[in-house]
Each structure stands twice: as C-alpha cells, then as structure tokens.
Amino acid sequence: MMLRSLPAFSGILEVERKFCSFAVQELTANNGTPRFQSIRSLGQWKIHDVYYDRSNLLSSAGVWIRQRNGQWEAKVKKGGNFTNSRFEELSDPRDISRCIRDLTGIESTEQQQFGLKCIASLSTIRKAWIADSEFRIVLDTMDFGHTVGEVELQQQANFRAAMGSSIEQQKQKRMQEMDDRIAKFMERYSWAFCPGEPKGKLTAYFERDTA
C-alpha cells in the first residue's frame, strides 16, 4: 500500500519590528549601555523598488508584490501589525503567480507583470548591520527624504503537518518565538532606537503624493 505524504512547507520566515531612526549618531558596540555583544556593518547600497497591485486587492489582503532591483518578490503577511510584522517571503515566480491567482483570480506570468499595475516606484539608500551575530538592523532613507528602520530575524523553516499541529500553527509558533526575541533585543538596547511611531515607506510615499 502506497503511503500518502503529509503536507510540507519549506521557505523563509521573516519577523521585523520597525523604528523611526537611531538615537545615536553612529551604531557601534561602545556607544551605549549595555554594549552590543557584537556589531558588524554590512555597508550601504541603493535599492530600487517597484510595487504592484490590482485595485488594492493584494495590499488589502496583506500581500505586497514588488520588483527589487529587477527581481520579483512577494511578502505575505502572517500576523502582527504595521510596527511588528510577520511575513512569509516568496521569490520563485511560480509561487508568486500562484499566490496572486489564489487572491485575485488573475492567472498571468512574470513577463506580463502577473497581470498587475505599478502603484509606486521609489529608491532607497540602505545601511545595514548585524548585531549579536544574528539580528539584522537596517536604516532606509528614501529618495524623498523619509527615514525608517527595522530590526529583523529571518529563518529558513521546514515544517511537516503533524497530529494536532498544522503547518500554519507551526509557522505562527516559530514567528512568535522570533518576535519575542526581537522585542527583548530592542528593549535591552533601547538606547540605540528613537522612540515614537514609525511610518512605512509606502505610507510616506503616498502621503507625499497627496500633500
């Protein structure tokens, strides 16, 4: 008798917490108490993002489709709120197409921009660091002057459905653990981050157009 394989998941989970900006001029190990266990600069580079949607069908469902420096990406929200977000990331055009089809009924290819329309185009100067060997800190400055930062954890995850624990439940549990770790990290090094309510780059972009 042939055994039926259980549903499985293999992909990247990302959890992030946003902040307005840094509360210090330079991000180094010795400019606050307690000191970072380690801090390593990843440098600075330019990002060009083109965002796509169709009558807000995707963004209203918590899905963001973009071309980042020419490469297609999808971020599928899996919980949290704007400041404290949890995502599953897709980079395979087939997975992105399937995600769009499931939400909108549109079946199209990457060559046809998945049947979507451009809603925003912006450039960003990104500075990034790795703190305590695993927490990625980024600070983005957009070409129209807005600044926002993120503390991120990413994990390659592999799950298989099991008795009493679906794949989605396993994802949520893992992302909650990741979020708890980021919260503790930002609390420990609160001297590094400006207080206040951060504003996302797309929100600031659209507000600029309507100002």
What does it look like?
With 211 residues, the protein is an alpha+beta fold. It has a single domain, classed as Beta Barrel (Hypothetical Protein Pfu-838710-001), CATH 2.40.320. It contains three helices and eight strands, in the order βββββαβββαα. It has helices spanning 93-104, 167-188, 201-210; strands at 8-19, 39-53, 63-68, 71-80, 84-90, 117-131, 135-142, 147-160. Strands 1-5-4-3-2-6-7-8 form an eight-stranded antiparallel beta barrel. β4 and β5 form a beta hairpin. It is globular and about 55 Å long. The mean pLDDT is 89. InterPro entries: CYTH-like_dom_sf, THTPA, ThTPase_euk. GO terms for molecular function: magnesium ion binding; thiamine triphosphate phosphatase activity.
CATH superfamily: Hypothetical Protein Pfu-838710-001
Query: How many E-type strands?
Result: 8
Rg over CA atoms, rounded to whole Å, is 19 Å
Binned strand content: 35-45%
The assigned CATH architecture is Beta Barrel
Distance between the termini: 67 Å
Label the structural class: alpha+beta
The level of helicity is 10-25%
Task: Give the H and E element order.
Answer: EEEEEHEEEHH
What is the C-level CATH assignment? Answer: Mainly Beta
Globally, the shape reads globular
This entry's quaternary arrangement is single chain
User: What's the tally of helices?
Assistant: 3
Estimate nothing, just give the exact number of structural domains.
1
